[in-house]
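Deviation from plan, reported transparently: (3S)-3,7-diaminoheptanoic acid complex.
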Amino acid sequence: MEAEGPQTILLADYQPPEYLIETVELDIALDPTRTRVAAKLSIVRNPALKTVGKVPLKLDGELMELESIALDGRQLKKPAYRVDDTSLTIPSPPQEPFTLETVTYVNPQANTALQGIYLSRGVYCSQCEAQGFRRITYFSDRPDVLARFTVRLEADVDAAPVLLANGNPVERGTLAKRKRHYAIWHDPHPKPSYLFAIVGGDLGSVASTFKTASGRDVDLRIYVEHGKEERAHWAMDSLKRSMRWDEKRFGCEYDLDVFNIVAVSDFNMGAMENKGLNIFNDRLVLASPETATDANYEAIESVVAHEYFHNWTGNRITCRDWFQLCLKEGLTVFRDQEFSAEERSRTVQRISDVRQLKSLQFPEDGGPLAHPVRPDSYIEINNFYTPTVYEKGAEIVRMIKTILGDKTFRAGMDLYFERHDGQAVTIEDFVACFADASGTDFSQFMRWYTQSGTPELVCDLTYDKRRKSAELTVHQTLKASPGKQKKQPQFIPLAMALLGENGKEMDVKVTEGREIRDGVLAVTERTNTFKFSGVTSRPVPSLLRGFSAPVNINISLSDGDLAFLMLHDSDLFNRWQAGNQYATRSILALIEAKRPKAVLGAKAAKFATAIRSALFDDRLDDAYKAELLKLPGIADVAREKSSKVDHSAIFTAHRSFSRAIAEALKDDLVEIYDRKSRSKTFSPDAKSAGRRALRNAALTLLTTCDGPEDYARVAAHYKRASNMTDSAHALVLISGVDAPERETVLRDFHDRWKGDHLVIDLWFAAQAQSPRSETLDEVKALTRDPLFRLTTPNKVRALIGTFAMANPVQFNRPDGAGYRFLADMVLEIDRLNPQVAARMLGAFRSFRSLEPKRRALAKAALHHVAGSSPLSRDCHEIVTRMLDD
Ligand code: B3K
Ligand code: ZN
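Because the crystal trials were delayed, the predicted structure below was used instead.
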């Protein structure tokens, strides 16, 4: 077994299930080390298959102890069944429908992988997606087997007064023996096993109600640690707004009598959309002005919405197999992005979504871990919950909307809900709804799902002054990526405009080339040419407006043109994009420059002028201005170089550029900082958060001046802060510099928040992202801090994840010590929690573009991981793909 290595699963091998499971009755007696699971499954041959003769029934199951097995009420003895490490097989089951009963035991306390049933700070909870249900009972653990579940839970009254499962509550009662009690839940909606969930624990809660559009009353409840109830109101508010929004925007109404959310402290990811019983990482539920930042508030709102929206996109209509993961994830991310855009500011939301896409998905798509949005093979499916499946998947849905327009897009969604409710479907089924609703041919468009890599559009614009015409040539290039050498041109909606010398959009006509809709060109070939008439002055092109497709765009524009776009583009996204590009380009030019001072002076002055004019433009809101002030990060600049990346050189140039901008804008920044002083009462709304964001962005720039007064300003900001947004911002800034106040501020934060396991993660993260050279030693020391726990994913992410993924300078130390540290930590974590370990390994995903010395050191660290034993399937797959040439 071992020598063969883990098995690769192929999309091409998909076979429908031989058996269906219609109903499931589970009786779960919770116990910390010996939880008993009695299961009764009613099983039928899949009528769609019409197979004749005996077909073995093979159920998935692992890490359980099987006590008994009975078929139609009769105990089975071997060889009537077989068990191995991953399955239970009945070689010749009856042809007619039958019931199968098993009794198994699992050990929640020993479950550090956090899949199946486990204990989190004394609370029993479960995580099944993707394949955790097979750690609870023997089952056909695949998303195309949909069953109706009834669950009886039993536990000690004291340890678990709250007992929850999916669906609606049916009955509860106490048992005479040993102060035990039980609760019965029934979920009327057939669902795949990955959506199964239970919770048992001693929890506090907040409650509310919601009346659906058709008048159904739903009881809403959010369960949290006792004493933290006050911090759950924002999540509740977000939930109600999401429910209303989904009705209005997509006609999707909730379909059970209750909706429960439970916050737990140990969780492998953000949250999980189990039917009627969402389980959340408490980081994404709990918020108060004193303990949560605006970013936390925003994340809570969007994740609560995301999980809720899954009720229709994921739960009612689910995936046929795990290759179709983007069917639910890409679509649901798109839906939560739209929700946030409408609740907050559309442009700022778009900027933040694109920042995320470019900083996480683009590097993945350009490196050894690249895979299509719908992968065609996997070893461990948990490794495919990636930015590509989620964020690029969402961009694909957004492009469909751009191509069809709002109304037709909605018609396609309506058709999808109507046609596929209750089914497990594929990407083809999804796209067919838009094709059918609009009469549009999406066959070329499907390549977005099957080809990995970020397309690059190399554009050239020429102007004919005499004819008042212009010509835009677009070359589409698609680099080879793992498993895909030759690629076909993709269908790219390119939103654009030509700006005239007065800064206004010119009213041009497309005379050659296809326009999909007003201002959106269809790029379909390796080379497309578009001609425009009515070009009354030299045009400055505003391309890929609103980031209309997940591509890189390349057109030669002068600094003057970019500054012009920063000042005038009526597409606010592109205005920001122009500024970002200007800054990135300037930093790269500084690295190459023979006389950096001269380059810096000219570049910074133009940039500062454009920024200043935006800063005092009353038509722009504060959140947007804050985005303009945030310069691209070190990693953003690094991404623009496909080889020989030297993070120390980028850091030095970045610092000079930031300081030059800060000095040029000093008076303005100080004015903004002082003017936007603290408001008396805290409100998490977008406008108030925008005000804080702008002030903090000004503070960040001012701090790069590195003067004693600049450090004193940060220290004072920390001291005077009346909310966590400001304290945490100051903490990160001061932790990043060698300020005399640094130690005091860090100690103060620690002493104040050491009793709060969520807030203290900000303290770990602030230190882990410091670009100072001492950081690695400090991070190593922090792994031994009494508040750090290797078994808690949030702690691992805050300290080790932040160091590896958000500290490009110190992770990529020239001596390779950052790489070795990460490799050692990954191996340690892998023994406890393979999923989290494999995720950490992702920090190496761009190692091939490093300068040769760093590349060799990173490769050696990866080889060290690859050569270690035991190594989980999760890490094995990542490291193998990473090292594959
Ligand atoms: N569907 C879950 C993610 C499950 C991850 C399993 N490794 C949360 C979400 O995307 O909504
Ligand atoms: Zn999701």
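Residues 572-592 form the longest helix (21 residues). We consider this an acceptable substitute for the interim report.
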